């Protein structure tokens, strides 16, 4: 079940004999894209180049490129990304047009001078990535509660979890679901806009020009939204604006950095210094992680499409706190230890293992229960 480390991955066969490396670069990117890798890492290590893919959040070695071919391939990548091919001692950022390498989306390229040689990271994007609400894979209890809460046009739904835990995907899926049932006016303030969702008004903050979350919100409230999505509540001003919006008949969906559901309440209390207001407006908190899913092609025994790891794709592992009357009292009294989740990580673990969606090792890797 462990990702392979030394031998090349199944299907690893880049064409290395060409003089201009055009085919090799296309082959590499299409290989990565076929496996839905989010990134390709090309790390020069003296005489050779190590190739790794980030698959479902985990870096997996897939093969090596010999010295001369590696130099041609890295040079070709930099050329396509419109970088200075002769510069190896300074970091550079560029973009390869998807059409130039036979992909549907552009590839972002970043180079960095490491001590053993240049390191290139190629980030891939996927158009069809956005999951629908039903495809998120939430346990039915969480799914039903979310659906009920979405129908109410006031109060706050907050999401937390580290970077890459699927919060944005969840929010976009919730918005799509919302638009299916009711064509309401949705405005988002994001940093940055990660995906364009038809039917909603998305805006991006620009702190360098003075457009912060708080400033954008102040103006956007005059645009008459019914639902407001805030990329992240990270300061007092934004927290105050978000609460004011939710009090005045807007559904507010936002993320906030915390390690647990009760941690969200603690942080919001600290940002606003008004537990009464927080208790009155908070309706639901989701604390989300992503765990790798047992490969559906081989049921976990290991095959070519999961690189013998037995795992492919990801599924949410989460806790949920529904703020009801008793929880409100606990928030006001600042007895946050009383805020037991309505759906706990233990229940999530039981659900994931009961449905054979992931492995025990994979859940334990996240160290949550
Ligand atoms: Zn498999």
Task: Write up this protein.
This protein is an alpha/beta fold and 369 residues long. The chain folds into two domains: 22-127, 2-Layer Sandwich (Beta-Lactamase); 130-364, P-loop containing nucleotide triphosphate hydrolases (Rossmann fold). Helix content is 31%, strand content 25%. The protein is built from eleven helices and 13 strands. It has helices spanning 22-34, 67-80, 140-150, 167-181, 213-220, 236-247, 261-272, 275-281, 325-332, 345-354, 360-364; strands at 39-45, 48-55, 58-66, 92-96, 107-114, 117-124, 156-160, 186-190, 201-204, 227-230, 251-255, 282-294, 311-322. A seven-stranded mixed β-sheet has the order 9-8-10-11-7-12-13, sandwiched between helices. The protein has a six-stranded antiparallel β-sheet with strand order 3-2-1-6-5-4. Strand 5 (107-114) and strand 6 form a beta hairpin. Helix 5 (213-220) runs parallel beside helix 6 (236-247) and helix 8 runs antiparallel to helix 9 (325-332). The longest helix has 15 residues, at 167-181. It starts with 21 loop residues before the first helix and ends in a 5-residue tail after the last helix. Zinc ion (ZN) binds next to loops.
């Amino acid at each position: 079940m462990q990702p392979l480390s030394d031998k090349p991955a199944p299907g690893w066969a880049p064409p290395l004999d060409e003089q201009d490396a055009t085919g090799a670069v296309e082959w590499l990117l299409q290989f990565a894209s076929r496996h839905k890798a989010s990134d390709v890492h090309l790390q020069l290590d003296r005489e050779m180049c190590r190739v790794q893919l980030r698959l479902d959040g985990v870096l997996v070695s897939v093969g090596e490129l010999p010295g001369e071919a590696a130099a041609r391939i890295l040079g070709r990548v930099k050329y396509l990304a419109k970088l200075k091919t002769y510069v190896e001692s300074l970091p550079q950022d560029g973009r390869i047009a998807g059409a130039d390498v036979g992909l549907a989306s552009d590839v972002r390229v970043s180079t960095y001078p490491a001590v053993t040689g240049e390191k290139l990271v190629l980030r891939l994007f996927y158009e069809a990535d956005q999951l629908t609400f039903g495809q998120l894979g939430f346990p039915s209890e969480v799914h039903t509660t979310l659906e009920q809460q979405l129908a109410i046009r006031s109060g706050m739904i907050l999401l937390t979890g580290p970077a890459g835990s699927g919060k944005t995907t969840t929010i976009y899926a919730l918005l799509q679901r919302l638009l299916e049932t009711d064509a309401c006016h949705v405005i988002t303030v994001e940093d940055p806009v990660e995906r364009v969702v038809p039917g909603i008004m998305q805006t991006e903050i620009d702190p360098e020009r003075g457009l912060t979350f708080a400033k954008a919100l102040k103006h956007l409230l005059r645009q008459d939204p019914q639902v407001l999505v805030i990329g992240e509540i990270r300061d007092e001003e934004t927290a105050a604006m978000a609460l004011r919006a939710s009090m005045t008949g807007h559904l507010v969906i936002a993320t906030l950095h915390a390690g647990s559901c009760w941690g969200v309440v603690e942080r919001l209390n600290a940002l606003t210094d008004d537990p009464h207001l927080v208790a009155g407006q908070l309706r639901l908190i989701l604390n989300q992680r992503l765990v790798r899913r047992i490969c559906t092609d081989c049921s976990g025994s290991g095959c070519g499409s999961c690189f013998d790891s037995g795992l492919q794709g990801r599924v949410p592992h989460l806790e949920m706190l529904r703020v009801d009357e008793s929880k409100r009292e606990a928030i006001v009294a600042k007895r946050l230890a009383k805020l037991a989740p309505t759906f706990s990580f233990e229940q999530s673990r039981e659900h994931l293992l009961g449905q054979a969606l992931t492995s025990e090792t994979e859940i334990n890797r996240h160290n949550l229960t």
